[in-house]
Design a protein that fits this description.
- This protein is an all-alpha fold.
- It folds into two domains: about 30-75, no CATH class; about 85-310, MetI-like fold (Orthogonal Bundle).
- About 80% of the residues lie in helices and about 0% in strands.
- It contains 15 helices and no strands.
- It has helices at about 1-30, 35-40, 45-55, 60-75, 85-120, 125-140, 140-155, 170-205, 210-215, 220-235, 235-245, 245-260, 265-275, 275-305, 305-310.
- Helix 7 crosses helix 8, helix 7 (about 140-155) packs parallel to helix 12 (about 245-260) and helix 8 crosses helix 11 (about 235-245).
- The longest helix has about 35 residues, at about 170-205.
- The two termini are about 10 Å apart.
């Protein structure tokens, strides 16, 4: 597994560099002069030219990208135009929140979808209910689902706070009360996708010959489901997981903005509104790196779950 992971990471480096270049040129080429956007419509041409020269925006985009990438590789992501703090400090203060919310959402959605669809008892009742929730998760946008959960559980019942974030230092119960609604909102789409993908593969694997042999040997349905069918049916879910990290960032933007959570998603929205280019580029670079790394890890995990891939 480690050898496969190393190979995937070697191939991932050029992809990451190419995507960061496209990100930089898109921001610089499509949005125009950052100085003009920062100073506003009433700025004079002289003030715009002076700020461009001071920040280095008057140089060719290629030179700007090479300088930015060279500094970024050494951990220097520049300073925020809004707060004048280092971008690293700003991003690192928000990153743990998004990581916790994102990882818990994917793990929660994956575990629930796989376990529920692997159960062998009460399948006639459980599967329709699981399918109904999956359809809701896929079709209902994050903001609509989040608003519905807030209205029901915060406004009407008063069980959970509607906005805000509580760190672990305020206690486990307080932290869980603040994270539960955002967790359900962000994980709903993944639960629906995992359910449909896993169930289709589960039903196909259940018809294979080795499953019939296991039944003929007298193994129980639960043992067959979790020991034989699940490890083979989970492979498409792993593949989808590696490809869906970009969607997770989009969902985090909506969820964190809706619940006023101080994470990367909300930080990205604020940086776009304030034209804070260094923060925008840093978040884009981190997202690209995370997607590439996740795809490489998914390939290695796929190989670990499927011995045929290791032999190839």
């Amino acid at each position: 597994m480690l050898l496969i992971l190393a190979k995937r990471l070697v191939w991932a480096v050029p992809s990451a560099i190419l995507m960061t270049a496209l990100l930089f040129f898109s921001v610089g080429g499509l949005l125009g002069s950052p100085a003009g956007l920062m100073l506003g419509q009433d700025a004079t041409a002289e003030s715009i030219a002076e700020l461009n020269a001071r920040l280095g925006f008057d140089r060719p985009l290629v030179m700007q990208y090479l300088e930015w990438m060279g500094k970024a590789l050494w951990g220097d992501l520049g300073r925020s135009y809004s707060t004048h703090q280092t971008v690293g400090q700003i991003v690192l203060s928000s990153l743990p929140v998004t990581l916790e919310l994102g990882i818990l959402s994917i793990v929660f959605a994956g575990v629930v979808a796989i376990v529920v669809n692997s159960l062998t008892f009460g399948r006639r009742l459980i599967r329709p209910v699981a399918t109904a929730f999956a359809m809701v998760g896929i079709t209902l946008p994050n903001f609509a689902l989040g608003l519905s959960l807030v209205f029901i559980f915060s406004v009407e019942l008063g069980w959970f706070p509607s906005i805000g974030w509580a760190p672990w230092s305020e206690g486990l119960f307080t932290h869980l009360r603040h994270i539960l609604l955002p967790l359900l909102t962000l994980s709903a789409y993944y639960y629906g996708s995992f359910t449909l993908i896993y169930r289709a593969e589960y039903d196909a694997v259940s018809e294979r010959q080795f499953v019939m042999v296991a039944k003929a040997k007298g193994l129980g349905e639960t043992a067959i489901s979790f020991r034989h069918v699940l490890p083979n049916a989970i492979l498409p879910v792993i593949t989808y997981l590696g490809l869906s990290l970009g969607q997770l960032m989009g969902g985090a933007v909506v969820t964190e903005s809706l619940f006023s959570i101080p994470g990367i998603g909300r930080l990205l929205v604020n940086s776009i509104l304030s034209r804070d280019y260094p923060v925008m580029l840093a978040i884009g670079m981190i997202t690209i790196t995370a997607v590439v790394m996740m795809n490489a890890f998914a390939d290695a995990l796929y190989a670990a779950a499927n011995p045929q891939i290791r032999l190839e």
